[in-house]
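Q: I'm writing up a methods section and want to include an example of the input and output format. Could you take the sequence below and give the corresponding predicted structure tokens, formatted cleanly so I can copy it straight into the document?
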Amino acid sequence: MTPVSNGVDELRRPLEVVAPGERGATRIADRVVSKIAARAAREALGKLPAAATPPRASVVVHHGTARIGIHLDLGYPTDIGARCADVRRHVASRVRALVGMEVPEVAVHVERLHLTPAHGSAQGRTR
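A: Here is the clean output for your methods example:
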């Protein structure tokens, strides 16, 4: 006669340890990383000029690293170098935190500058 297993004995057995290479892998699509990078660039820029288009990102993922290109519009006048550095830092930080990939390069491409009126300046024509 064969003993009937009620499942309790199976729960008491120690779990088998599976080697890391046999567990599987998580793959995050380039387009997902691209959307995260574009959103992070938008966060870093804050308020955009009215006519500006939202930032776009292109990403190349290879062996756990992401090389990112950000295309964006900026208001003018502004410190373009400082704004680009802020975007670079924030995008790299957010992609590392959310996706777990190293980001050795974030190239920022300023597509257009939009003239923004100085705070408190008169609107319209001046004589």
